[in-house]
Amino acid sequence: MNNFIFENATKTYFGKGCVKEYLSEELSKYGNTIMLAYGGGSIKKNGVYDEVVKILQSAGKNVIEFSGIMSNPTYAKVQQGAKLAREKQVDMILAVGGGSVMDCCKAISLAAVYKGDIWEDFWERAGIINFKPLPLGVIVTVAGTGSEMNGGAVITNEDKKIKTGRDYTACNARFAFMDATYTFSVPKKQMVSGGFDILSHIMETYFSTCDDENVSDDISEALMRGVIRDLRASIQNPEDYSARSNLMWESTMAENRIIKLGKKCDFQCHQMEHQLGAYTNCNHGEGLAVLHPVYYRHIYQYGLKKFVRFATRVWGISPEGKTEQEIALAGVEALADFIKEIGLPSTLHELGINDKSILKEIADSCNISIGSYKKMTHQEIFTIFEECFE
Ligand code: NZQ
Ligand code: ZN
Questions:
Q1: Does ligand 1 have an atom closer than 6 angstroms to the CB of 68?
Q2: Ligand nearest to the CA of 256
Q3: Which residues pair with 74 in a beta bridge?
Q4: Ligand 1, closest atom to CA 101?
Q5: Is 183 in the pocket of ligand 1 (CB under 6 A)?
Q6: Closest to 147 (Cα-Cα) out of 126, 119, 122, 178
Q7: Residues 6 or more apart whose Cβ sits within 8 Å of residue 107
Q8: What does 20-61 look like in DSSP terms, one character per residue?
Q9: Which residues of 105-122 are buried (b: 16+ CB within 10 A; e: fewer)?
Q10: How far apart are CA 358 and CA 377, in angstroms?
């Protein structure tokens, strides 16, 4: 194992009924004015809003609502939330939703108390947070990003056409509630997209040095097998609590920094997807599904032994009678088949991107990962986008 320092400050409540049982007690540690933040209204349809508001009311909290946080949250929405938080002198933010709501609220928790421009000082470039953000708590309603137990927040600056994420330990939520029954109402399209995002986070971490046998990769292999199993079971029966609760924790485990310990991490596909998203507002997990197999066909030879391990240990590919190249490629093809099996798009065309002429500009705007087995150039990213087209 390589050296590492580990910290994770989020207190986690996991399981059926946890909100009803512990939210009130947890909220008693914070001030009276709570900003209740959520997305486009799914929580009003599935009963989560009513459950949370009832708890807030019985605790005597003054509730300020901030709704309409969109998928791929924008910097403009962050500023709107920060303005409201300042005007109403909010004591803490309670984010109820998926990655978009959680990320937007992390950025609001900074912007509400920071005098300067948080985009310039903390997203456009990495900054140092030497002040206390507004306290943030989250209630997760969809498994995918793992934002609940890290300091990561991905924000889109529409004017600059940049979608980018930063992970600050100061932005970890103080607490996270995860009740998988809240995810039963997630539409299939979003469930598989979130599920693939989990797999992507694990692969982006796994396919990087160190490549010696190590605890982080061992955990990653178990998690990848779990995500594949639990996604299949959740598609069969969306109310399979065992599958949905496993998926929820796999999502958290993929992004709570544990499997990244001692790893360089790649995240080149995420860099590419984020810029695709900045230009087209495409769905995050779907964009990743299109990119991963094509990207891996470009890099597998540079991390051959790891791709062989992936094929045999994650997909159960038999090595018999095959060269290492063939085993590794069979693993990548198993991944591509799985993407089709669960109904995710395999081409940019299927993702709804029909204008090929924007691909060069998008490719040129992508960050280059320093953790990839093969360092990309903007030209090769452009080639990957073209191969993804159809
Ligand atoms: O807005 P509402 O009405 O709530 O509907 C949402 C939204 O339409 C719906 N949904 C959520 N929970 C539901 C539900 N529908 C029915 N029942 C429920 N229980 O799902 C849709 C998608 O929600 P969203 O939060 O946008 O999805 P996700 O969790 O995939 O988050 C995506 C965002 O997170 C970023 C992505 O780039 C994207 O901006 N990421 C954040 C990361 C992080 N903070 O660590 C890492 C990721 O790699 C990712 O980049
Ligand atoms: Zn992701």
A1: no
A2: 1
A3: 156
A4: 25
A5: yes
A6: 178
A7: 73, 75, 78, 118, 123, 153, 155
A8: HHHHHHHHTTS-SEEEEEE-SSHHHHSSHHHHHHHHHHHTT-
A9: bbbbbbbbebeeebbeeb
A10: 17
Ligand lying closest to the C-alpha of residue 147: 1
Q: How far is the CA of 138 from the centre of ligand 1 (A)?
A: 13
Q: What is the largest CA-CA distance in the chain?
A: 69
| pTM beyond 0.90, yes or no | yes
Site to probe by mutation for ligand 1, drawn from 46, 49, 105, 142 as the one with most ligand atoms within 8 Å of Cβ, is 142
Helix spans in 149-214 (H):
188-206
Residue 59 has pLDDT above 90, yes or no: yes
Ligand 1 centre distance from Cα of residue 180 (Å): 15
Query: What digits encode the pLDDT tens for the residues 148-166?
Result: 999 999 999 999 999 999 9
Q: Do 114 and 131 form a contact (C-beta atoms < 8 A)?
A: yes
Closest to 367 measured CA to CA, from 90, 180, 154, 188: 154
**16-42 average pLDDT score:** 98
270 Cβ closer than 6 Å to some ligand 1 atom? yes
Is the pLDDT confidence value at 390 over 90?
A: no
Tell me which residue has its CA closest to atom 28 in ligand 1: 99
**Residue whose CA is closest, atom 47 of ligand 1?**
145
Segment 118-150, tens digit of pLDDT: 999 999 999 999 999 999 999 999 999 999 999
pLDDT average, residue stretch 241-252: 98
